[in-house]
Known about the structure:
Blueprint: E1 2-6, H1 9-26, E2 31-34, H2 41-52, E3 62-65, E4 67-69, H3 80-92, E5 99-100, H4 109-122, E6 128-131, E7 153-156, H5 159-165, E8 178-181, H6 184-188, E9 192-197, H7 203-211, E10 229-234
Parallel strand pairs: 1-10, 2-3, 2-6, 3-5, 6-9, 9-10
Antiparallel strand pairs: 4-8, 7-8
The structure holds fructose -6-phosphate.
Amino acid sequence: MNFVKTTDYDAMSRKAAHIIASQVILKPDCVLGLATGSTPIGAYAELTRMYEAGDLDFSRVHTANLDEYVGLSHDHDQSYHYFMNLHLFSKVGLTADQVNLPDGTAKDAKAECIRYDQTIRALGGVDLQLLGLGHNGHIGFNEPADDFPAGTHLVDLTESTIQANSRLFEKKEDVPRQALTMGIQTIMSAKKILVVVSGADKAPIVKEAFFGPITPRVPASILQLHPDVTIVGDAAAFSQTDL
Length: 243
Ligand code: F6R
């Protein structure tokens, strides 16, 4: 694993954006795997800045997001469709035919998961997958479990994830209880993986996931087996490591 330590969140965001930008410059028709959550927002803002400066062209890029809540309409302000449109798609000219997310409003969740994996395969797979890291070690919504799930699937969110997400909803009762997520196999099939981590609250899980044993109880620990992973984190997130 390749670790890149930065002073703070802004420097982390710039570094992550530069890595994503290099991918787009080197392969203009690449497939970017994207994440939501608070951590990548700064990187998306930096990509927007590069696009506005005329330094980046997304016209041939396709994207595939990690996950989406079940039951939220695409225009719900907490849906991941809405988030991605707000923070990236609408800012860099990515149009509906270029972007892909699991459809949390699909009547048949199982069929939707199969469709989503087929879509990613039809695109030729993900070139660079961006990931955040949950406090419990989840990636996408692959929560701690007894085994590593394979393809895109329906998950029941854990109490700690519901709790963490509740800050974004008016009431805890409004937080969706289920999500569709790329599976571990889908994520591990990406040619390159970029993880962004920031803040002292992530320090214990950074240590456990990337320096501890590989176990489905800490889903991100599987990334240790991927041949091309870069973890960009600020000093606070790496504070419990020797980096
Ligand atoms: C988001 C996602 C999640 C987040 C993780 C960290 O699409 O799949 O795994 O990356 O929960 O979230 P933040 O960045 O808010 O700490």
